[in-house]
Amino acid sequence: MRKSVTTTVAMLAVGSLTLTGCGQKNQSNPNAGKGGGTTSKSAPLQDLNIKSRDEVKDGGTVRFSIETLPTTWNALHIDGDTVDLGTTIRGFVGANNFDIAEDGTPKPDTDYLQSYDVQTNGGKQVVTLHLNPKARWNSGRTIDYTDYQATWKANNGANEDFKMASSDGFNQIESVKKGDKDTDVVITYKTTYPDWTATWSSVMPKEGVDTPETFNNGWKQFKPEWFTGPFTLDRIDQAQKTLYLKRNPNWWGEKAKLDTVSFRAMDPATKSKAFANKEIDVVDDIITKDAYESARKRDDGELRQAGSTQWRHITFNAKSGPLQDKNVRQAIAKGLDRESIARSDLAGLPVDAASVMLGNHFFMPGQNGYTDNSGGSKYDPEAAKKQLDEAGWKSNGGTRTKDGKQLVINYSLLTGVPTSDNEGQLFKQDMEKIGVKVNFVNTPPDDMSKVLTSHSFDTISFTWQGTPYPMANVRQIYGAKAEGSKQPSEANYSQLIDPRIEKLIPQVDTEMDVKKRQELANEADKAIWDDVMTLPLYRRIKFTGVPKNLANMGAYTFQTTRAEDIGYLK
């Protein structure tokens, strides 16, 4: 399962909480990932087989795989903040205001947003969206300013009954009003806000977000009237766990090249074999040797690769047991050989593990703004032992004790997910060397969101998938629910609220000078490393299996393609 770092762009091009881990367990190998393979620097930004519509034939189907059918179809809800829904499915049936270029630059998708104006008046940024008057929901109602107004009110954090994934961006808005006509949306910010296109990359229908009850519970079933785009619902086969889409007769844009699209919920371990056997047409996030080798067996297929914004990490619950002590968290970070974990996870993949080690919570290696801030968490087991000694956890050659209690940490091991198992085993081995006992808590993957949101864990590893807006979501994972709140954000699973970070968030949110903003984000990153809220492991290289003649689909870092343009070459 993948978890998004959510601005509304997560519904289009970027995602979510990832529970990826298909194939057999990777064996630890100190030489794996060394001396060859794709590096963070050499990975292309996209491998999508971009073709014009004239080169793509009409008709056909593409069968995608997902991990589970959504439990809610509201991608802005904390439980709907997944890549499966936010990116894979909603790319075909959701409103999309911007196309994202190869370098991450947004450009209006004129089917929804004809143009926009940005002005600053008295220190306040005013954005006016000129919507396409032809754009409408499947109910037949025109998309207008009232949808933007309702989306803002549901997600700005003012009413905590709305269980939104993040208030980032929305909480910077002072008002959303009608312009000269209903399809002109005037958005006034409290101050400047450079990432406004992230917040408004999509919008939700007012009927689905007007009350907390509807926002939280009204999306349990797929309601076609609350969606839009070149495709619409055909049927859902619960027995086969498959969602089927067909061309949308109400679509006002270019006719979709494909006749139909389907999304089948599958065990991640079976996806590559299903692709090789031509049971599905797209296998995404190939992350193990077995999956890689299996996918290569398809005779009419190929693997496309690019950099990605996905990154593996360990989240620490800083309100649980011994982890409440920052010294313990810091010692654990120093005692963990992160590069060995990367080499083991990536064994058998054509990736240079050393090059994808991650020293930042916001920027990927090679990205403008990237600085390795992990210095205090570098692998140093002797320093880890010393810090635990100083924190009062004494060693007698085995598990450390303090006040008669052993130093025991639970690791939530996602059952049937080899990456989680592999990382857990290596985590346990390294912790034993510094006197920390690790117990495994077997956790069904379907329970992962519940475990995270209920904070019923000590440590857990999973994948965050970022966005083209690396500085837009500091509060979502690392801050309070709202400025001045004493409650952590819904996705701040560490539960820590650090005054240093809280002071920096408004500055990062509003600074218009890119270099200065990057410096502020890196100051926040240093505090996150110091707190050990999450411990980054490595950045993933993206491998996607597709038929060789499939156009406008594949692997990418930032770039999006339009659903109506995906199809097979003539």
UniProtKB/TrEMBL annotation:
Sequence ranges of Polar residues compositional bias: 20-31
Record-level Gene Ontology MF annotations: peptide transmembrane transporter activity
GO cellular component: ATP-binding cassette (ABC) transporter complex; periplasmic space
Domain of life: Bacteria
PROSITE patterns according to UniProt: PROKAR_LIPOPROTEIN
Region (Disordered): 20-46
Xref: Gene3D superfamilies: Dipeptide-binding Protein, Domain 1, Dipeptide-binding Protein, Domain 3, Periplasmic binding protein-like II
Pfam family for this entry, one: SBP_bac_5
Solute-binding protein family domain sequence ranges: 120-481
Example GO biological process: peptide transport
The protein's name in its UniProt record: Family 5 extracellular solute-binding protein
